[in-house]
């Protein structure tokens, strides 16, 4: 996109905002390959024309009612509230959590995405001297006070039904953190990949995936053979999947055919 005219850059910026609602200045530099001064002038001109709103770190759309912004405005996420989900299939989730914790090495830096199954890892992490980045206040509370466990959290807003921290307006406020392993849950898993119920959560999890060398999914067998929700990633992007012994042969075959290491707890 080198050599774009001003009108072409403006059109590209507005197209991105129509989908995202917010875009950072850094991302515009990467996508438009324009100089910082040129892009800054583009944003100031569009703001003066009333076609976007210039904010610190980037720009946001005039119409904030994109799916992500609507969810942020209501401060609620789609899907089952955490308080209801945490008691479902609890024995299976505890076994899955223990198996996931066994994959952690002494002194590692790991990421744990919020969820009722990933929460079950926490009792088994004490004494490993881990550095843990998590967006879940439930996990923060579970790890607080553990001997040798250091906890980091990203910036953003707290969504109370899930007690999870997510960035506002698409801005990445996650600490500079690269981890060998990311442990994450799912609302559903099907042939098309790992799914979540809310687009705001999808964006956050994709950022975590970008920072991890290995993606490990924790999901009890009730999450399989479903196809509802927004796709976070393809099955081929998952390195390992830990589930329980209720998984069907059909679901197991789909997972293994994608090259995923299937672990039955």
From TrEMBL:
<keyword id="KW-0238">DNA-binding</keyword>
<dbReference type="Pfam" id="PF08220">
    <property type="entry name" value="HTH_DeoR"/>
</dbReference>
<protein>
    <submittedName>
        <fullName>DeoR family transcriptional regulator</fullName>
    </submittedName>
</protein>
<keyword id="KW-0804">Transcription</keyword>
<dbReference type="GO" id="GO:0003677">
    <property type="term" value="F:DNA binding"/>
</dbReference>
<dbReference type="InterPro" id="IPR037171">
    <property type="entry name" value="NagB/RpiA_transferase-like"/>
</dbReference>
<dbReference type="InterPro" id="IPR018356">
    <property type="entry name" value="Tscrpt_reg_HTH_DeoR_CS"/>
</dbReference>
<dbReference type="InterPro" id="IPR014036">
    <property type="entry name" value="DeoR-like_C"/>
</dbReference>
<dbReference type="InterPro" id="IPR036388">
    <property type="entry name" value="WH-like_DNA-bd_sf"/>
</dbReference>
<dbReference type="InterPro" id="IPR050313">
    <property type="entry name" value="Carb_Metab_HTH_regulators"/>
</dbReference>
<dbReference type="InterPro" id="IPR036390">
    <property type="entry name" value="WH_DNA-bd_sf"/>
</dbReference>
<feature type="domain" description="HTH deoR-type">
    <location>
        <begin position="6"/>
        <end position="61"/>
    </location>
</feature>
<keyword id="KW-0805">Transcription regulation</keyword>
<dbReference type="Pfam" id="PF00455">
    <property type="entry name" value="DeoRC"/>
</dbReference>
<dbReference type="InterPro" id="IPR001034">
    <property type="entry name" value="DeoR_HTH"/>
</dbReference>
<dbReference type="GO" id="GO:0003700">
    <property type="term" value="F:DNA-binding transcription factor activity"/>
</dbReference>
């Amino acid at each position: 996109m080198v050599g774009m005219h001003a009108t072409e850059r403006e059109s590209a910026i507005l197209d991105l905002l129509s989908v995202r609602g917010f875009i950072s200045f850094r991302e515009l530099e990467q996508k438009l390959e324009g100089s910082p001064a040129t892009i800054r002038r583009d944003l100031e001109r569009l703001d003066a024309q009333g076609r976007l709103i210039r904010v610190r770190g980037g720009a946001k759309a005039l119409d904030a009612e994109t799916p992500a912004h609507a969810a942020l405005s209501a401060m609620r996420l789609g899907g089952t509230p955490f308080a209801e989900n945490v008691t479902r299939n609890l024995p299976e989730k505890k076994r899955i959590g223990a198996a996931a914790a066994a994959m952690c090495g002494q002194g590692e830096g790991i990421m744990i995405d919020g969820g009722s199954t990933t929460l079950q890892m926490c009792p088994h992490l004490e004494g490993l001297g881990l550095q843990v980045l998590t967006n879940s206040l439930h996990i923060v509370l579970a790890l607080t006070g553990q001997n040798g466990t250091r906890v980091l959290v990203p910036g953003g807003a707290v969504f109370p039904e899930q007690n999870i921290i997510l960035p506002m307006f698409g801005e990445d406020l996650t600490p500079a953190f690269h981890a060998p392993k990311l442990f994450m849950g799912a609302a559903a898993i099907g042939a098309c990949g790992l799914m979540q119920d809310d687009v705001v959560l999808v964006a956050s999890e994709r950022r975590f995936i970008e920072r991890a060398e290995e993606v490990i999914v924790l999901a009890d067998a009730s999450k399989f053979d479903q196809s509802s929700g927004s796709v976070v990633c393809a099955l081929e992007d998952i390195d390992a999947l830990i589930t329980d012994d209720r998984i069907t042969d059909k679901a197991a075959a789909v997972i293994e055919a994608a090259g995923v290491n299937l672990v039955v707890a």
